[in-house]
Structure formats: C-alpha cells, structure tokens
C-alpha cells in the first residue's frame, strides 16, 4: 500500500493503479477507494465512471465513509459519459443493438451512470449517520424536496442542522432555504437570513443569491433593497447564474436601479451562457417590448428557450407564429408549439389550443377537442376558457346544446374578470336569446364589461341610452360613452359618432364633427374610413383632410401592421391618385400585406410574378417566375381567395390534372367554400359531383351546390339541376330541375337557356313545347352556345317544309361547325350528300 501511495504521489499513475488493483482484488477497502478515484479521474487507467462507481460501491460496502458519500453524490445527479469518450463509442456501446456484441458485454451498463435517487438516499444516509457533513446536507435536501423518498421537513431540518453544526456551507444554505419557505411549510425569514449570512461569510455564491432575494422580496422587517442589489452583483460576479438573471431583471424593469436595456442584456446573456433558461425568456421580453423592439431577435431567442423545453417559451413562440411576429405567420407551426406548452401544463396554452381547434386554425376543426382543452383550462380557473365553453354550449358545438349551463359559465367567467363574458351576457339579455328579453339586465352587463375594459360594452350601452331601452333615454350620456369607446380605440364607436353627426334621429347633423370622428376612425386604422375621407376629398367637402393627411393616415395604419391598410396603400402608390405614383413602394407594401396574411395582396403578388410586368422590387423589375407566383396564389387560396384558387386549378389542369394535384386543389376550394365564397361552393359541389380530387358523393355535391345557389350562383343552379335529372329517381326531381334552369336563365345564364330548351323539347319535368324549346335554344344559340346551335338546327330540320326553313337549319349547323362541333359537321356533310344524290336523279329524269 505504501508503494502504491508513493507511486501516486510521484504521479506514476499507471504503476499506482496496478498496485491498487492488486490490493483491491484481494479485498483491501482503502485500495478500492483509491482505484475508484483513479477511474473517475482517468489517471493511470482509461477513464470510466462506470468502473469508478463499481469500485466505490465495493469500498462503501466495506464501510468506507468517503466511498459512501461519493456514491451518494454520484447517484444524486448521475454522471454523463466521460468527455474523452467519442460520440461513435457512446453510440456503439449504449445502443440497444450493442447488447449482444463484445463491446456490449464489456460495458453492459454503457458509459454513463444514471441518476438513481433511491440509491442516492441509501448511500447519503450511510455516510450521514457516520458523520459526513456533505452527505448530511444532501440527505437533508432529499428529505426537503422529496427526492427518492417522501418529503419530511422535520427530517430535513435535522440533517441540515447536523451539517451546519460542522460549519458545512451546504447545511447552512439548506437551513436558510428551509426557513425561507423554499420547500413549503412555515417560514421564518429572520432565521433564514441568519443562516444565509453564515453561508455567505464562507463565500458561497448561491447563499449570496438567496440572501439577496430574501432582502429584495422579503417582509418589511428584513427588506433591504440597496444591500440586495450589492449582494446580487457579488453573486453574479462570482458566476452564480441565478444572480445574473435577477440582476438583469432589475435593470430590465428598472426596479431600484435605473432602467438600462444594455446592462440588462449583458447580465441576462451571461446567465443564458450558464444554462439559465428563464434568462432567455427575459431576453425575449426585452427585445419584444423593450425600448428598442426587435421582434426577429425576440423570436429567435424564444425558439432557443422553447427547444430547451421551457413551457412558457413554447407558448410564447406559438403566439409569435400566430401573429407573424419575427417569424412568418404559420398557424400550423403555432399550434405545434402551443400543444407542447399545453402538454407541459401551461393553462393559457390549454385555452389557446382549444381556440385553435374551435376555429380550425392551424389544426383540423374539432369542437370536441376544443371543449376538452377549454374544460382543462376552466378547471384551473381560466376565465377565457369558461367564456369559450359557454359559447360552445350555447351553440351545441362539440357537446349537447345547454343554454342554462352556457349562461352559468358566462356568469362565472364574468365574475373572474372576463369582459367578453360580461358583454355576451349583455347581448343575450338584450336579444332575448334563451332568456327573457331584459334591457335593464343587458345594461347592467354592458356596464360590467365596460368596467372590465371592453370597448364594445361602452358601445352597446351607449345605444341603450340613445334609444332609452332598459335605462332612461340620455343622449349626452350616450355620446359620452361612444366618445369614451372611441378614445379607448374602438373604430366602431368612432364610425358610430360619424354616423350620428351625419344623419340621425337623435343628434343634430354636424358635418365638421362627422368628419372629425371619421378622421379618428382612420387614425385607429380603419381602411374604410380612409376611403370615405377620400370620397369627401373628391367631392370638394371643406371638412375633408388633405391628400397628404389621407396618405399619412393610411401609412400610420399600415405601419401598425394592418394588412388591409397596407394593401390599400399599395394600390394608392400603384395608381398615383392620392400620392406620387411609385411602383417600387407599391410592391413593398403589397409584399408586407401578403406576408402578413392578406389574401388580396397575396393574389396580387401571384399575378405580378406570373406576368413579371410593371412591378418593382428594390428598384428592379420583377422577373416572371411561375414557381414564386404559384407560392403566393397558394397562400391566397388557403384563405379562400376564389381568383387565386381558379388560377391554381387552371395550372393544375394544364399540368395534366394528376390525382394528387386535384386532391390538393379540392382542399383549397373547400377552404374557400367554408369561408362562404359561392364560386368555391359551386366548384366543391362539382368536384363531389364528378368525383375529382375527392370520392364522388351526390349528397355532398347537392349540399355545396345548394349553398352556392342560395347566394345566387347561376352556374350552381345549372349543375344542381343537371344532377337532379341524371342521378335522382325522385319524381319531384325533374320539375325542380326545370325551375332551377328557369331561375338561372332569368339571370342570363346561357347554359340554363339551352338546358331549359332540352327539357321543353323532351318533356322532362314539364309538358313538351317545341315552340318554347326553340325560343330558349335560340337565345342560347345567339349567345354562341354550340350545343344550342346544333339542337336548334335539328329542331328546325325535323319540321322543315320549305327552302327558307332548311336555310335556317343550315345556318345554325354552320355556326356550330365553325366552333368545332363534330355532329354539326356530320349533319352538313349528310345534307350535301343528299343534295348531290337528288341532283343526279333529276338529271337522269330530264334525259
């Protein structure tokens, strides 16, 4: 043993290891401890934490307190594979496939030592009972935090005290934390400060940080903000990441220190480098809403924190993607991050995820899933979730309709501060929806929502005072409420005031006031208000603002991120009506609007890149780029823009109409149909009718075509009528089809005229009538419908009894043939053959 120790002291580690191994294998506990230490440090042997732990265990089992204490430490935290181990070695040894290999048999436990809190407790207890102060402090911490055992603050205090009696700094720190209430239980902040002071006197940076927090946030009797800041600086300079974080927060918020974004960033970044994830989130706040906002950097930092697993950062990153703030607007990516935050227990994420499911925004619309997430948030007391649940219940979405439960939910949400719930209760009582109509009750809830900060509450309450419903009529009070709402940012209130002073049964007309409130609406970002002001300017109204002021108003709204205003400003720069014509600025604003999600701007960019004419980016003309055009058309189509979807459909058909392409196009049209676009509803119905891009379904086809025709789409009427004639066995179908053809024909649909002629000629759903058939064929044929031209030719030819009638028939055949109609060409050829045969016969008779 003396020879081994001598070799070790002379740094002949290989020789020392060989001697220690011989002794260890013969049962010498001290040699086992030394050999374990050599393996842990990689001195004289290949570093191996697994081998080190094995020899520590053997020494510990023979009563070595040092080995027991070290095992308690190792199992408390676990040990990663040594830094000298290559990534490939780790992969080969620690992969499941390595079990049956030679390496797997040599290193059955891999290269790491996994955390094992039960074993940590076993070995810490053994060493603690033998008097090891470090083990006593660790055992106290395990009891305090319930790590590997049930939490027991009395046991924790006993073991922390035992370590502190030996002046062990971890024991002093543990008692300080225990008495400060860090582990729960009754707090004694004065006693906590005393123990922290003892640990601070030993130079412990963590104790310095804890004492600073106690002096910063503690009871008045011990609060000392100036000293807290000094201690935070000391701990931060000593490398304590928590202190760096707190110091950065003080500078960021300007608490007890001058607000200093630069110093805040410096300390927060130093904390981040040392692994403090919450410091990353504070940097996000700093760059998102600090004195010099930088949403791009904020989003980048937020992603870093989110990827490190911080649930709040995951939720916030989802919000960034929803708003397109610092990152492209992407509802799907937003939903992914918000779902991660919800899985980690963020209540706000529960509510937001429920809303995404309810809206079908970034996720498939699923009201049952929405209700589930709202329920989870409501259980946690989230007022927004209670409000949303009430909305689902009152509409019967994702659950049985239950107005009573809905109103109760709204009341609960309102009592928790939900202004939206108070407003909804006001609307329910004002309209008499599922409750007796009661304007007085409505006024009470509108007032509550106004007190909770909802401008619509002020707005709706104003109209009750204006009309004297539920309250005594009070015109000045009504105008005052509208002014309050407009002053708080309500565009609707500003527009209502404009309307009242323009023409109203309650207020004397005042063009000056009307124009002033219209300007206020424009200042609040109302594009329509700017358009109305432009009309006033064009009409020479003396109260209208100047062109320069108009442009300034629109620029202000566009600069705040209003995509509609951005698109309108782009149009103004494009036509030069209200400002100097500038295609480059037009392109820039169109691009901003499109990137922010405006479908009109996205479709415009699609057109610009499709043609590559008259548009400028960075002072250069945009080159035609169909791939880029398709990208913007696609974005517009996903929002239900019919024109963009039509172009994409044409491109898809031109490329061969591949099934996968048609399926994608069907989904785009469906989005537009769900948004209420009648053209999209008709196209979706036609896709279902023909089984293109989706499985054929006459029922779905009829559903969507009916939606389109209700909005007056004549082409949908023709398609649905055709379906009724072709697919329906119902005897009522043909008459209904004829009626649809008539409605579409009245709207000027040529195909409807032709089909109505077919029905009248064949007696489908209506009594046969050749004269009426000819009338409708004639209208369609005159408009260029080749099928009608052919049918009219046939109809005339069937009853032709003179040369003039034959000429009429041939006229329509010729028109249809000129349009490429093969049947019409065949009719003409047959007529010529007959004429030729008749002429030859006449010649023979004459001879």
Structure, explained:
With 847 residues, the chain is mostly helical. The protein is built from 47 helices and two strands. Strands 1-2 form a two-stranded antiparallel ribbon. The C terminus is likely disordered.
SSE class: mainly alpha
**β-strand amount:** under 5%
- The level of helicity is over 70%
**Strand line-up in the sheet with most strands:** 1-2
How many E strands?
2
Using only CA atoms, what is the Rg? 41 Å
Average pLDDT confidence is 87
Give a short account of the largest sheet: 2 strands, antiparallel
Poorly predicted runs are: 103-108, 840-847
Instruction: Provide a count of the helices.
Output: 47
* Principal-axes shape call: elongated
N-to-C CA distance:
146 Å
Features of the shown structure:
847 residues; mainly alpha; two-stranded antiparallel sheet; 2 strands; elongated; disordered C terminus
Question: Nutshell version of this structure?
Answer:
The protein is mostly helical.
What's the arrangement of secondary structure elements?
Layout: H1 2-9, H2 13-25, H3 29-41, H4 49-61, H5 65-77, H6 87-94, H7 102-106, H8 117-129, H9 133-145, H10 153-165, H11 169-180, H12 189-201, H13 205-217, H14 225-237, H15 241-253, H16 261-273, H17 277-289, H18 295-307, H19 311-323, H20 331-343, H21 347-359, H22 367-379, H23 383-395, H24 403-415, H25 419-431, H26 439-451, H27 455-467, H28 475-487, H29 491-502, H30 511-523, H31 527-538, H32 547-559, H33 563-575, H34 583-595, H35 599-611, E1 616-617, E2 620-621, H36 626-638, H37 642-654, H38 659-674, H39 678-690, H40 698-710, H41 714-727, H42 733-746, H43 750-762, H44 770-782, H45 786-798, H46 803-818, H47 822-846
Antiparallel strand pairs: 1-2
Helix pairs in contact: 1-2, 2-3, 3-4, 4-5, 5-8, 8-9, 9-10, 9-11, 10-11, 11-12, 11-13, 12-13, 13-14, 14-15, 15-16, 15-17, 16-17, 17-18, 18-19, 19-20, 20-21, 21-22, 22-23, 23-24, 24-25, 25-26, 26-27, 27-28, 28-29, 29-30, 30-31, 31-32, 32-33, 33-34, 34-35, 35-36, 36-37, 37-38, 38-39, 39-40, ...
């Amino acid at each position: 043993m003396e020879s081994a120790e001598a070799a070790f002291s002379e740094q002949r580690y290989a020789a020392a290891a060989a001697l220690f191994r011989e002794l260890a294998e013969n049962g010498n506990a001290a040699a086992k401890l030394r050999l374990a230490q050599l393996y842990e440090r990689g001195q004289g042997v290949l570093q191996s934490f697994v081998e080190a732990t094995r020899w520590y265990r053997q020494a510990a089992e023979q009563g070595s307190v040092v080995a027991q204490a070290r095992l308690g430490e190792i199992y408390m935290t676990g040990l990663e594979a040594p830094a000298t181990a290559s990534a490939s070695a780790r992969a080969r040894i620690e992969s499941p496939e390595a079990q049956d290999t030679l390496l797997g048999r040599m290193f059955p436990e891999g290269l790491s030592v996994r955390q094992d809190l039960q074993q940590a407790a076993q070995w810490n207890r053994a060493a603690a009972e033998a008097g090891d102060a470090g083990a006593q402090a660790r055992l106290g911490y395990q009891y305090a935090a319930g790590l590997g055992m049930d939490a027991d603050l009395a046991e924790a205090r006993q073991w922390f005290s035992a370590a502190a009696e030996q002046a062990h700094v971890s024991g002093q720190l543990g008692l300080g934390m225990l008495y400060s209430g860090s582990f729960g239980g009754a707090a004694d902040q004065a006693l906590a400060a005393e123990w922290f002071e003892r640990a601070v006197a030993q130079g412990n940076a963590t104790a310095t940080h804890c004492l600073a927090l106690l002096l910063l946030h503690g009871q008045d009797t011990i609060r000392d903000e100036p000293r807290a800041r000094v201690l935070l600086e000391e701990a931060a300079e000593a490398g304590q990441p928590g202190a760096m974080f707190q110091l950065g927060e003080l500078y960021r918020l300007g608490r007890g220190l001058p607000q200093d974004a630069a110093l805040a960033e410096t300390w927060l970044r130093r904390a981040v480098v040392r692994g403090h994830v919450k410091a990353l989130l504070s940097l996000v706040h700093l760059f998102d809403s600090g004195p010099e906002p930088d949403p791009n950097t904020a989003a980048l930092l937020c992603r870093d924190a989110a990827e490190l697993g911080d649930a709040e950062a995951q939720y916030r990153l989802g919000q960034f993607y929803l708003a397109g703030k610092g990152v492209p607007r992407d509802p799907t990516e937003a939903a992914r991050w918000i779902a991660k935050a919800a899985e980690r227990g963020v209540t706000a994420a529960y509510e937001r995820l429920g809303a995404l499911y309810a809206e079908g925004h970034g996720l498939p619309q699923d009201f049952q899933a929405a209700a589930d997430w709202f329920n989870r948030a409501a259980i946690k007391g989230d007022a927004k979730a209670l409000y949303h649940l009430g909305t689902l219940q009152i509409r019967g979405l994702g659950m049985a309709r239950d107005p009573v439960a809905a109103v109760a939910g709204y009341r609960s949400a309102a009592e928790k501060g939900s202004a939206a719930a108070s407003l909804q209760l006001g609307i329910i009582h004002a309209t008499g929806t599922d409750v007796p109509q009661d304007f007085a009750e409505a006024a009470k809830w509108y007032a509550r929502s106004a007190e909770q900060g909802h401008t619509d509450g002020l707005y709706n309450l104003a109209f009750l005072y204006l009309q004297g419903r539920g309250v005594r009529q009070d015109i000045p009070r009504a105008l005052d409420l509208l002014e309050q709402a407009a002053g708080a940012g309500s565009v609707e209130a500003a527009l209502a005031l404009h309307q009242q002073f323009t023409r109203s049964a309650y207020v004397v007309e005042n063009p000056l006031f009307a124009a002033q409130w219209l300007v206020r609406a424009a200042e609040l970002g109302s594009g329509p208000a700017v358009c109305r002001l432009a009309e006033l300017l064009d009409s020479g109204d003396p109260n209208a603002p100047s062109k320069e002021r108009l442009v300034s108003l629109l620029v202000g709204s566009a600069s705040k991120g209003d995509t509609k205003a951005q698109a309108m400003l782009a149009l103004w720069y494009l036509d030069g009506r209200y400002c100097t014509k500038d295609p480059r600025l037009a392109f820039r604003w169109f691009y901003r609007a499109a990137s922010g999600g405006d479908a009109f701007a996205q479709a415009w960019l699609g057109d610009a890149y499709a043609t590559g004419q008259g548009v400028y980016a960075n002072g250069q003309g945009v080159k035609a780029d169909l791939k880029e055009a398709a990208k913007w058309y696609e974005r517009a189509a996903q929002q239900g823009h019919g024109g963009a979807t039509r172009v994409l459909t044409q491109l898809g058909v031109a490329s061969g109409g591949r099934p996968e392409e048609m399926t994608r196009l069907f989904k785009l049209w469906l989005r537009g149909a769900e948004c209420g676009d009648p053209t999209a509803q008709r196209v979706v119905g036609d896709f279902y009718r023909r089984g293109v891009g989706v499985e054929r379904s006459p029922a779905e086809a009829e559903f969507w075509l009916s939606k389109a025709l209700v909005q007056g789409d004549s082409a949908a009427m023709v398609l649905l009528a055709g379906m009724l004639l072709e697919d329906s066995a119902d005897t009522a179908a043909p008459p209904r089809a004829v009626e649809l053809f008539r409605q579409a024909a009245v709207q000027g649909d040529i195909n409807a005229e032709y089909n109505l002629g077919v029905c009248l000629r064949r007696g489908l759903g209506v009594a046969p009538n050749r004269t009426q058939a000819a009338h409708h064929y004639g209208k369609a044929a005159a408009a260029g419908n080749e099928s009608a031209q052919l049918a009219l030719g046939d109809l005339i030819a069937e009853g032709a009894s003179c040369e003039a009638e034959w000429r009429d028939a041939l006229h329509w055949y010729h028109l249809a043939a000129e349009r490429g109609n093969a049947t019409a060409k065949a009719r003409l050829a047959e007529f010529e053959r007959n004429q030729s045969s008749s002429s030859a016969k006449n010649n023979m008779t004459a001879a």
